[in-house]
From TrEMBL:
The keyword Lipid metabolism does not apply. GO terms for molecular function: double-stranded DNA binding; histone methyltransferase activity; zinc ion binding. The keyword Nucleus applies. PANTHER family: HISTONE-LYSINE N-METHYLTRANSFERASE FAMILY MEMBER SUVH9-LIKE (PTHR45660:SF84), HISTONE-LYSINE N-METHYLTRANSFERASE SETMAR (PTHR45660). Residues 39-74 have a biased composition (Polar residues). It holds the Pfam family Pre-SET. It is found in: Chromosome; Nucleus. GO terms for cellular component: chromosome; nucleus. Residues 505-648 form the SET domain. This is Uncharacterized protein.
Length: 661
DNA sequence: GATCCGTCATAGCG
DNA sequence: CCGCTATGACGGAT
């Protein structure tokens, strides 16, 4: 039997310790070649820059196309002129550098030639948050290293809070716009919540990682983290440009006058990309018309030059993959896949017949599994679990058809099969007296559906507005939420019935060495989306006493940390923001028995930095002291990542939920 | 009905 | 300040 304590220790510091930022520049020492011997090979001995030695990765047919589609300025002439241009570019850059720091010392023993550690007297608190309005991006290139576990937790929490705020703002802007459309503002296009949210956060200095240009990992961002919008990447500082695929420190800001790439987004926007996971053939930028067709040769400038320089100096780049994924609103997600090294680059003939730069990106070893691979793996698990993982499945539905969607039970570690042995409890069982005051007149009378909540009694109970948007995403955590229910006149399709409809995603209870049993999803869980109810049998005071005397463990809902307060909290943007206190409910003082009947929720692990929140909800009765405990995602949770709740436990209180291990 | 394409409103940055 | 960009949303066509 493992301990229930989940992902992380309970306590983490509010103040970060100082990690050591490692300066990449200014001290660099690439070998300087005499300018008259300047050749592509001397620019970079590692590169296979193929200037006139034929075409790489190009079929004869493509070459034919290339030459035939392009006369009289043949592809070869194009390459020649491009090469001349590059030579000029480098001559200028090297001349400038010679003039400036002709006496830099070589650093022979460093694995990465460009990287020379310097003093660690920078303040880490400056690394992350920018408080001034519209501050320009910094030109200081750093790599953050030596993060201690408490630092990791601090930055993780910072990223988490930042993303929560971004999502809240985005949803609010979209909803407000939708309401305005209802009123007939006459505007044709919808507001871009994704852009508005980032703008508001920028105005309040809430963008992260803007006062340093960070090479390598962004503190607090894990490999596999999911983003739904390009601007979200800008806000956390993972990738700084809203549209361009290559982010780099431009030459004029660089201490040695050369650009350095920091991150790339591979989303298949270029026909010549090849993506084999660990190895990417990445096409440089430029040369496309507005229809994304390659119409001229690419040039070795901007991001293309930066990638080449990053290769030369052995500087790693972050790779974010964007790809289609049903379930996200735009049909696309961005996944942080970790660090890659550029090992080769060359000028090639693209499918269009025009010259493109190509870069071979190789994933650095010993990193967590690629998020994009996990997504694909989860996809295959959803459709054919036994084929993909023939061993380990104990049950393909522990709910025995009670849930809309089967709940898997997986254990490839030991022989435990406990969760298969319990009665599956779909909904919490309340004592009969909570239903006393239910009856006619307790629900709304919106026969045609509740619309946007105008004149809906249930909306009024929530303070005039529904708690969800039209996609069923939780707008803001509240002391309690009133959903429409069996005593309402509205049809079951009413969108104020999100949590009572039960599980909609594919979940799996799994055995883990760290957390005993755990729960993970095979679907992407969007931030704010409903996960499941935390079910149990609610006990009367007397029953609870007997249970306690017998030594049985109970769930006390009042012990859950009130994480709902964090969801939709706009206080960092809106100084007038007040945390929702309405509708107010008395402290929850009931106990729940899960010793015989339970659902998947009680297998979720504890974390003090959880990705799931507990939100009280009422729909089938009006006793505010006995709400359903509904679980919602606090962030975009990638498939197969363990779900965690803040049980409000201290480190040494693992016994409380040991029954579920 | 899913998917593709054109169009438009965008915002950061070099 | 201007032009570029591996965006995102929508509406119409296939």
């Amino acid at each position: 039997m493992g301990s229930v304590v989940g992902l992380e220790d309970v306590n983490f510091p509010t103040e970060p310790k100082t990690p050591t930022p490692t300066m990449i520049f200014p001290k660099i020492e690439p070998k300087l070649e005499p300018l008259d011997e300047f050749t592509p090979q001397s620019i970079n001995p590692n590169s296979n820059f193929s200037y006139n030695s034929g075409f790489r990765n190009t079929t004869p047919q493509q070459q034919q196309n290339a030459t035939s589609s392009q006369t009289p300025s043949s592809i070869e002439a194009g390459v020649h002129s491009e090469y001349n241009r590059i030579s000029e570019l480098f001559q200028t850059a090297f001349a400038q550098r010679l003039q400036r720091d002709g006496d830099v010392e070589a650093n022979e023993d460093s694995g990465c030639r460009a990287i020379v550690p310097v003093s660690n007297d920078s303040q880490v608190s400056d690394i992350v948050i920018t408080r001034r309005k519209y501050e320009k991006r910094s030109s200081e290139l750093v790599r953050v290293t030596d993060l201690k576990p408490e630092d990791e937790r601090y930055f993780r929490d910072l990223i988490r809070k930042t993303r929560m705020l971004y999502d809240s703002l985005r949803i609010f802007v979209n909803l407000e716009d939708e309401n305005n459309q209802h009123l007939g503002s006459g505007r044709q296009t919808r507001a871009r919540g994704d852009l508005k949210a980032s703008q508001m956060m920028r105005e309040h200095g809430l963008w992260l990682n803007r006062d340093k240009r960070t090479v390598g990992p962004i503190p607090g961002v894990l490999v596999g983290d999911l983003f739904l919008y390009r601007m979200e990447l800008c806000v956390v500082g993972l990738h700084g440009t809203p549209q361009a695929g290559i982010d780099y420190l431009p030459a004029n800001q660089s201490s040695n006058g050369e650009p350095i790439a920091t991150s790339v987004i591979a989303s298949g926007g270029y026909e010549d990309d090849e993506d084999a996971g660990d190895v990417i053939i990445y096409t440089g930028q430029g040369g496309q018309d507005k229809n994304s067709r390659q119409v001229v040769h690419q040039k070795l400038e901007g991001g293309n030059l930066a990638l080449e320089r990053s290769m030369y100096y052995g500087v790693e780049v972050r790779v974010i993959r964007g790809f289609k994924y049903v379930g996200s609103s735009s049909g696309k997600v961005y996944v942080y896949d970790g660090l890659y090294r550029i090992t080769e680059f060359w000028f090639d003939v693209g499918k269009s017949g025009f010259g493109v730069y190509k870069y071979k990106l190789v994933r650095i070893e010993n990193q967590p599994d690629m998020g994009s691979a996990v997504l694909r793996f989860a996809e295959s698990l959803r459709t054919r679990p036994l084929e993909v993982r023939p061993m380990g499945y104990i049950s393909l539905d522990i709910s025995r058809k009670k849930e809309n969607v089967p709940v898997f039970l997986f254990n490839d570690i030991d022989n435990e099969r406990d969760p298969a042995c319990y009665d599956y409890l779909l909904k919490t069982v309340f004592p009969p007296y909570v239903y006393q005051h239910v009856g006619n007149g307790s629900g709304c009378e919106c026969t045609d559906g509740c619309g946007n909540g105008t004149n809906c009694f249930c909306a009024m109970k929530n303070g005039g507005q529904f708690a969800y948007d039209t996609n069923g995403i939780l707008l803001r955590g509240k002391p309690v939420i009133f959903e429409c229910g069996p005593h309402c006149s509205c049809p079951p399709t009413c969108w104020n019935r999100v949590s009572q409809k039960g599980v909609r995603n594919r979940f799996e209870v799994f055995r883990s060495r760290e957390t005993g049993w755990g729960v993970r999803s095979l679907d992407l869980l969007l931030a704010g989306s409903f996960i499941c109810e935390y079910t149990g049998v609610v006990l009367t005071q007397e029953q609870a006493q007997i249970f306690t005397m017998n030594g049985d463990s109970l769930i006390y809902p009042s012990h859950f940390a009130e994480r709902w307060t964090e969801w939709g909290d706009l206080s960092r943007i809106d100084s007038n923001y007040v945390r929702p206190a309405y509708p107010s409910i008395p402290p929850l003082d009931f106990a729940m028995d899960v010793s015989r009947m339970r659902n998947l929720a009680c297998y979720m692990s504890h974390s003090s930095s959880p990705n799931v929140l507990v939100q009280p909800v009422l729909y089938d009765h009006n006793s505010v002291s006995f709400p359903h405990l509904m679980l919602f995602a606090m962030e975009n949770i990638p498939p197969l990542r363990e779900l965690s709740i803040d049980y409000g436990m201290a480190d040494d209180c693992t016994g409380k939920l040991a029954i579920c291990n």
